[in-house]
Fold this sequence. Notes:
Blueprint: H1 10-13, H2 42-53, H3 61-68, H4 71-95, H5 105-147, H6 159-174, H7 179-183, H8 187-206, H9 228-237, H10 245-250, H11 258-284, H12 292-298, H13 301-304, H14 310-339, E1 344-345, E2 351-352, H15 356-377, H16 381-409, H17 415-443, H18 445-453
Antiparallel strand pairs: 1-2
Helix pairs in contact: 2-11, 3-9, 3-11, 4-9, 4-11, 4-16, 5-6, 5-14, 5-15, 5-16, 6-14, 8-11, 8-14, 9-16, 9-17, 14-15, 16-17
Amino acid sequence: MAGDxxxxxxxxxxxxxxxxxxxxSGGDGNDPGRSTQEGTTPFQTAFNILNIFVGTGLLGxxxxxxxxxxxxxAAQALxxxxxxxxxxxxxSTFQLLPAHTPRTYPELGKAAAGGAGLRAVMLFSxxxxxxxxxxxxMVAWQQLELLLPAxxxxxxxxxxxxxxxxxxxxxxxxxxxxxxxxxxxSVVGLASSxxxxxxxxxxxxxxxxxxxxxxxxxxxxxxxxxxIIQAVGVFSLSATAHSTLPALRxxxxxxxxxxxxLAASFAIMLAAYSTLAACGYWYWGDSASxxxxxxxxxxxxxxxxxxxxxxxxxxxxxxxxxxxxxxxLNLCLQDMILSVLPLQRDAAGDYHxxxxxxxxxxxxxxxxxxxxxxxxxxxxxxxxxxxxxxxxSISCSLLLPTAFYARLAWPRLRAPARTGLVLLLGLGxxxxxxxxxxxxxxxxxxxxxWREAALPPGARPTGGWANPLVR
Length: 471
């Protein structure tokens, strides 16, 4: 997701969403055969793509299957290649800009559609990043709640509120820490993702009859349902961080090899996501939670037979991953807001006059706003995941890149390419409207009650996340 796009360096954090890439002066690799002595290999680029794209959205795969049924696997198999194509489109679009145009996403929108394109990029990018920051806060709360005693730390607060309070105390100082220090823990993100896939896939061998599940009888499954629209939203959240791709391409030793690296990374993502979705849905069925760490902790073989608390180890890894990614996302939001204000910069790129206290205050305000929104959306986390994927991720990573490419390259394209772009635009617009409308309807109480009555037997309440075993 977009929240996983944070990296070690302040400049890298905002490339190419807010700041110029190394191609700011025209050296963007317009020549597909260009190569440099220094740069990343295709393997390193594919690893970087996986490190950025694979994040907390991975935890919602069984939940997406619960919403859409087994048919959601086919939707995922069709969706990821589309996002791989849009990733190549956004890189191709940057190559169409004039030589000395800054290689930033807002500038791309401005070059393609003037002020309207610039505002669209800023709006949907802010929605995606701010929504992603709220998701990270909620994920951190859930992992802390799993690590705390079931009764919490005292009678004054519920376990969830204790987790929220502790997470706030942990995150506050990290907002002002040098991000280079936090970047050393970025490997924890991939480690936790790999552990998630292994643990869920292992359930097929460790508990093939699901006799270790605390919730009996084994949950039901269904082939397809209207919830597949929300499943697509969750899948989209896990396959989008496209604003980082032009910078990754520019950093390659041979940029012409970028399509191969992109295809390889998306193939790995599709294999991992499909494995996790199918295995998780087979095991938990229509009782799957929006974040599978809760199911692993309370309704799996690991919680009843495993002497080593692997589910707690996983919760700790996911917690560290979210805590280290949130400050970078918060910094991106801060820079995005400052970039639209009429502020002057000096030759070094710093604001003049210095805005250190204003920057700190803005980061704190964003954190407080995200925490307040997380509190209101905590019980509808599933719908929040899907809504963010549909409104933010698809808009930023599919709809806008395709529209900008069509706008800039249309005169030189042949009829088949134009037809393909029109179809992609239609698909993106339809997905944004369907997913956003469905989830907004799902979040309204009367409509939610009506939809719950139509869910398959054994299905979880729409949008909610809490496991009934620990209510």
